[in-house]
Design brief:
The chain is an alpha+beta fold. Helix content is 33%, strand content 33%. It is built from 8 helices and 18 strands. The protein has helices spanning 2-18, 24-30, 33-48, 54-68, 72-77, 79-96, 245-256, 280-289; strands spanning 104-108, 115-118, 124-127, 132-136, 144-155, 162-165, 170-173, 177-183, 186-193, 195-199, 204-208, 211-216, 222-225, 237-244, 259-261, 270-276, 294-297, 302-306. Strands 1, 2, 3, 4, 5, 6, 7, 8, 9, 10, 11, 12 and 13 form a 13-stranded mixed sheet that branches. A 3-stranded mixed sheet has the order 15-18-17, covered by helices on one side. It is globular. 30% of the residues are buried.
Length: 307
């Protein structure tokens, strides 16, 4: 009886989560880590559903409607039927999106959030805001590979090759500390300890400690050096050196959950400097006053730039 109640509770949490009545953090605190990762894959499948054809989309809409209609009073009257309905929906969704992999583990961060993750080989990953990593649990021992979207700092245990794949290129190491930032057409890799190999469609580089490589907007990779022992964003401050302002704006948006309208400015203007993660007003002053840009705060979340 206890197992049946636990199963029903998990179904209740899933329905509330899909309806938006339960946050990711609340869901994670109420179920196991394995169930949480399983539910993340379901949500990713739902988000991907826009790419499906119309007939399949209609099926998805029906399933989501069934889940949304499962209110507490119905649960009390028909617990078995309600539970079977949710289970059937889970089976259909998970089967349809099996391309995600049965053992894919997903970690992601929200606006202004960082997260420290210990991988299966005791390597550590610190995720910056609005970033995601995905790796396959079953294949980890054979091939230590993960996929990154966003920015992360890696402390890799020595062992077999460790590879970080991004849409801009791949970073491969044996054991070292390095930072990878890959967002849209921005790719930046910094080696803080050891040695890393960076490969993209157009070039390959070997980075030693303190060296970095950057590729912006499809332009050839540029090499430089850093005097830092680790990325500053880990300690609550984002630092940039000769970075186009549009990428700094994205970093501001990701940290503070704001929207910045930069249509009236030259968004290729280069910025060097830092901004804090704990005070929006100081962050805006630090970045835009240095570039002689003015800004209007229409409300707390929308900002318009001008000269």
């Amino acid at each position: 009886m206890e197992n049946q109640n636990t199963h029903i509770d998990k179904d209740t949490f899933l329905a509330q989560w899909l309806e938006g009545n339960l946050s990711d953090k609340e869901l994670k605190n109420r179920i196991t880590e394995a169930d949480y990762n399983f539910y993340l894959k379901l949500r990713k499948g739902l988000h991907t559903s826009d790419k499906l054809n119309a007939s399949t989309q209609h099926s998805f809409n029906k399933i989501q409607q069934k889940i949304a209609n499962k209110k507490t009073p119905i649960f009390k009257l028909y617990p078995v039927r309600w539970s079977i309905g949710i289970a059937a929906s889970i089976f259909f969704l998970f089967g349809l999106f099996s391309i995600l992999g049965n053992n894919d583990i997903i970690y992601e961060t929200n606006f202004g959030e960082t997260k420290t993750i210990t991988l299966l080989d005791d390597s550590q990953v610190i995720l910056n805001s609005k970033s995601t990593i995905v790796f396959n649990e079953n294949n980890w021992k054979k091939s230590r590979q993960l996929t990154l979207d966003g920015e992360a700092y890696f402390k890799v245990e020595k062992g077999n090759t460790f590879t970080v794949n991004t849409n801009n290129g791949s970073v491969t190491v044996l054991g070292t500390q390095f930072n990878v930032n890959s967002k849209n057409d921005f790719f930046d890799v910094v080696c803080y300890e050891g040695k890393v190999s960076v490969s993209s469609e157009s070039s390959e580089h070997i980075l030693q400690s303190t060296q970095r490589i950057r590729k912006v907007n499809g332009n050839p990779s540029e090499s430089s050096a850093t005097q830092l022992s680790k990325p500053t964003w880990i300690d609550g401050e984002s630092t940039f050196k000769s970075v186009p302002i549009r990428y700094v704006i994205t970093a501001l948006e990701n940290q503070y959950n704001i929207k910045i309208d930069s249509e009236s400015i030259d968004d290729s203007t280069v910025f060097s400097g830092s901004f804090p993660h704990d005070n929006l007003n100081i962050a805006l002053i630090t970045v835009f006053d240095a570039l002689n840009m003015k800004y209007n705060k229409n409300d707390n979340r929308n900002i318009k730039l001008r000269y």
